[in-house]
Design goal:
heterotrimer; A alpha/beta (247); B alpha/beta (368); C alpha/beta (370); A: 247 residues; alpha/beta; Rossmann fold; 38% helix; globular; C: 370 residues; abc type-2 transporter like fold; four-stranded mixed β-sheet; elongated
Chain lengths: 247, 368, 370
Amino acid sequence: MMKDKVIEVQDMVKRFGSFVANDHLTFDVYRGEIFGFLGANGAGKTTAIKILCGLSRPTSGKVIVAGTDAFRSPEEIKKKIGYMSQRFSLYEDLTVSENIEFYGGIYGMTRKEIFPRMDLLIRKLDFESYRNTLIHDMPLGLKQKLAFSIAVFHGPEIVFLDEPTSGVDPITRRQFWEMIYETARNGITVFVTTHYMDEAEYCNRVTIMNEGRIEALDTPTRLKEIYGVSNMEELFLKITRPQNNKA
Amino acid sequence: MKRFMAFVKKEFLHILRDYRTLIIMFGLPVAQILIFGFVVRTDIHNAGIAILDLSKDEVTRSLTDKLASSDFFRITANLDSYNDIDAILKKGKTKEVIVFEDNFSAKMIHQGSAMVSIIADGSEPNVANLVTNYTRSIISSFSASLAKGQSGTSGLITTEVRMFFNPRLESQFMFVPGVITLILILICALMTSVTITREKEFGTMEVLLVSPLKPWQIIIGKVAPYFFLSIVNVTVILLMAWSVFRMPVAGSIALLFGECMLYILMALSLGILISTVAKDMQSAIFISFIGLMLPSLLLSGFIYPIENMPKIYDYVSMIMPPRWFVTIIRSVMVKGVGLAYVWKETLIMAAMTVFFIVLSAKRFKERL
Amino acid sequence: MRKVLFLIQKEFRQILRNKFLVRAILLVPVIQMLVLVPAVTFEIKSVDLGVRDNDHSPESRELISRLTGSSFFRITATPLNDDQDESLLLSGKSDLVMIIPDGFAKAIKGRETPKIEVLADAVNATSAEMGWVYLYNIIMDYNRDILVESGNGQSSPQGITITNRFWYNQDLNYKFYMLPGILVILITAIGIMLAGLNLVKEKESGTIEQINVTPIKKWQLIISKVIPFFIIGIIDLAFGLLIGKLAFNIPFAGSILLLFACSAVFLVAVLGLALFFSTFASTQQQYMFIAFFFILIFVLMSGIFTPTESMPLWAQKVDIANPVCYLMRINRMIMLKGSTFSDISGDLAGLSILALLFITFAVRSYRKRS
């Protein structure tokens, strides 16, 4: 089955002065995939995702996102993607409906398009009682779900999630991943970074980053086979520990 | 105690690492002093005046010359008719028009006096006042010397004026003390109120409150670095005043510093009080800066003397902390008086400080 | 364009939800104007005079009574010696001390020149000078009258009579001058502080990143930050002028429309500058100091306390970049003198250039990418 590539990255480098945050990264992401970017804190995940979103310029390398060159036309990319940051970035002093309306609007949707879709979303999330609640007053897990829903509200091709489940309880995390599955089923590619190794199991393919380099890239099953481990945590330790020992 | 010192040290490091804020915190007073010293003047130089001379005789011409040669004025135009006055004043560059009536010398000889009309642009009242008064004094002395010419030197009163404390009549003597007052209260109140509300806004206040540190230790710890920085600031300002403006401290330096420290303490405690009222940084900044700036600038007697204000402001300015300090610092710095002359104001400032602290403590406890 | 409306809608929703802010924005200018405007005047109400009369003659008393007769001087003390003179000045009890020498009357009536000494508290140099000039004028008038009386065989003496009129502001009402000035200062401070803090706060909380990742263009973002505070500024201005009219009966000699048009250009300039500055601050505290610095400098050099012509040349050049300076002049000219468009066109042009410049700076220096 021919799957088309939504993200093509070849030898991407990002340098901050003498510090190399991303060291010749090479990978592709296919349409409809749930692609996981794993690694410890400081491995370079957030840097990479920012480049893919057009929030940062790569130092060198080829980066094509949704058919657009990230070097030359980062603004073009932004029309086709969604993004959810670690901090959720919802406006605390606005209500649920006001946040949805705002983000829909700045992606170019008209009010006629926004309101029916918003009603659908609110019903699906079972947020009717929260429609006019300030984000400030909402529990963390619900904020997270809302932030994700808003990231895909305008129907992007790819949605980038940067550590979306940090600080959230396991049950909510599970529900969150249900939402991710459904999104992928609808044809939206999901690019997610995380430092929770168990979440790696949920992805179609994962890469493991360590000190700016990609140490592994494949499906979770195959990786476990190759490295002879039974879960992703062990996999991670096995991959990164040799480096740590050397250092 | 060790915990407390660790906390203070952390606060210090926070501040010292924030280059941009530091630069402004020290650069600000320097810039203000320079501006006030060199730029802000309440006297006039080269004010534009126009002459409408309907006589054009010897007397009017020599009077015109006298006006032109004075440092205060600069003749912008010689008008031809009364109708020109409105137009030239409206343009803005000319501040007053001096009209000599026709047949000036003749009227002086035959009628005993001739008339000079000063028409000043009243839209800038302080300029108008100054210009008018200077003009009057030039004309008066001209008139007196005319009279002298007639009656010889007999019975002509001469005057000698001695300007005390500020013989060269430099405006910075009035302003530099005022600048110190203004800057200190704004910076101190702003900084303390913001640094405390910042913790509130980011939710780290709870972390502090839950630690073994007592609330008063937290407050003092946050405020202490600013105390020392402000002292450094004052020193820099005084050095600048001395080196750039040749403004010495006429009184006791120890007394001056003591009063400054008291004032700083008071401003810091005001900042703390503000932080108990404001719920986020934006509100704190609004209250500390926009709430304090103009009143401190205008009601403290710093630029506009309190005696000139309507009586009620005597009382209104009493609740303004800067008012008391302005008096103290002027008296000590420029006039050189000792504590005996300023004990009343010092006491009031101390009382205000205590008041702010007590009030803050109460409010703090309530919220806990 | 539709996107900008969504941005602006969000801004307004946030602002209106902040009760403190809404109240502060409307009340603070009003209260400060009501309280401050009556206070600010350089007009010297009265000078506290100490008089040491060493002559005790009818002539010296005549001179003194002229002083008390003028509403300007108040005799607060009669010192008896040098120390007391100085003490009066040190304590601030007297602003001036006048010493009439022994033998004053004789000298006047005879052919000598008596010398009156005046000691002045010159900490406030201008007050001292003004007080001194008033005193001098009274002494000179007295002197001339004495000379007239004593005749000396001359024909009628030649004197000069001075009349004085203040155009556009007959009673030399300081309030007419200060009110627009204070209003402008407040609007400037509020505008610069709030607009800048707003943008920096989004940086601090991370919500700006969410906007940077969307296709929103830089100019759209900047405009969306300018317009709400622009509207607030205009409302404050209108409100302030209304209060000015009701409470102080300030004149409106010129066109109100022109006044608002100029103020609009001013607001754009000032807000553009604020947003430009905000790109350099990463925390609200940093921005606060930057704004503080510039606001204070703009205000001091704006010409409200010191006429711009009195400033040294370099300062006047710096003022070319000071939007507050332009508006002060324009306001005063329109409101008090009824100056027309052609009178202020130079200033308006300057202001417009600044507005364009600052907004451009703001848009260009804003980075959607780090």
